[in-house]
Hints:
Blueprint: H1 4-37, H2 41-69, E1 72-73, H3 80-92, E2 99-103, E3 110-113, E4 121-125, H4 126-131, H5 134-149, H6 152-178, H7 191-231, H8 234-246, H9 275-279, H10 286-296
Parallel strand pairs: 2-4
Antiparallel strand pairs: 1-2, 3-4
Amino acid sequence: MSTLYTQSExxxxxxxxxxxxxxxxxxxxxxxxxxxxxxxxxxxFAVALSVAMSFSSYWFSDKxxxxxxxxxxxxxxxxxxxxxxxxxxxxxxxxxxxxxxxLEDSQPNAFATGRNPEYGVVAVTTGLLEKLxxxxxxxxxxxxxxxxxxxxxxxxxxxxVLVGVVILVADFFFRMAFFGGxxxxxxxxxxxxxxxxxVFIIIAPILAQVLKFAVSRKRExxxxxxxxxxxxxxxxxxxxxxxxAGDPHQLKTxxxxxxxxxxxxxxRGKEQKSWIRKLFMTHPPVEERIKRLRxxxx
Length: 298
């Protein structure tokens, strides 16, 4: 029988299994690139560049996200109920009080950012505050605090590094191919292996993106189960997700760079569930999340 505890534990294992998949993908890509070019310096250069870029994004990601979303920091006197709910949940979870931001938007939604719990940020829309009951608001804030407490920002940064390496390595390879830099290996007698390596280099960035989205989806399930355990009220989060997903309004400041941060997909009219669409979804289907929450409550 599935419980919130087993769901949480399984999602942790699956997240790290996907990260292991990333590492294996990088090893395979490094071998393919080395075989095709006879050189490994491109791989090391791409790794160094990607790490440097991701290090910068890790330190400044919260400022970038908040700027893109046009969220404004608020004080206790501005939204006293939001402040009390967040403060109580932060204390219950042993987390520092995060900075609170509000987006002027009618779509109910929320996200968390910040490089670690000490610099945590929780942002909500005015639509969320207007349309959710207190228990539902509490469940959503618990979900966002779970992202902070579960080190999802750190996991996301690691994923950014790995995806960046894959994409940069593939890009360098094609630039070398374009400029005729693939003459370093005598491939006589190994044409099938060489062609296989070339095909893998082409599809590796796609595989990396699929793995990235898979990690993101698992972190959402983990945050859901953590929030339900914190509030001891899975039904409140299920109802909140129903209201958020059922709201027809578009989030005006939503974009592809920040969409994965929100508790639910901020885009409306893009929730088709074809198998190819599911591969590239940043969030698990809301129906599946609600089903898991309600099954754990029986």
